[in-house]
Design brief:
- The protein is an alpha+beta fold and about 130 residues long.
- It has a five-stranded antiparallel sheet, with no helix packed on it.
- It has helices at about 1-10, 120-130; strands at about 25-35, 40-50, 60-65, 70-75, 85-90.
- It has a single domain (about 1-130), classed as SH3 type barrels (Roll), CATH 2.30.30.790.
- It is built from two helices and five strands, in the order H-E-E-E-E-E-H.
Length: about 130
């Protein structure tokens, strides 16, 4: 009974079309920023490090590298009205649920393999060379 009540209350706060992305994807998160009476959209670009939670409390964390080579991580609730949209720029091929190891990486090793190439392409390349 209480599960049904909670589900009914949460249904009012869910977005009808939740964005589709996965861990390792490069995304642009369009966030609504309120400054006094004015509103504007700010884009936060980076790699999805993790997803956590379920239902209305589901969140994802995006990490980007600033111009001064510092990492900035920001967590967003998926069903928040402040998150206008999430655009997938590039699908990354991640083999883990949490990509915390990217925090220690520097330079080109920070990039993930592209999902279009994937594991099959990595295995097929040495076989084609023989």
């Amino acid at each position: 009974m209480s599960q049904q009540i909670i589900a009914a209350v949460e249904a009012a706060y869910r977005k009808p079309q939740a964005p589709k992305f996965s861990v390792g994807d490069n995304v642009d998160v369009h966030v609504k920023i309120v400054e006094g009476v004015k509103e504007r959209i700010q884009v936060f670009s980076g790699v999805v490090l993790k997803e956590q939670g379920a239902g209305v409390t589901r969140m994802f964390t995006v990490r980007r590298i600033t111009s001064t080579n510092e990492g900035v991580e920001r967590s967003f609730p998926i069903h928040s009205p402040r998150v206008v949209k999430v655009e997938v720029i590039r699908e990354g091929d991640a083999r883990r649920a949490k990509l915390y190891f990217l925090r220690d990486r520097v330079g080109k090793s920070r990039r993930l393999r592209d999902k279009r190439r994937g594991l099959e392409a990595a295995v097929a390349a040495p076989a084609a060379a023989n």
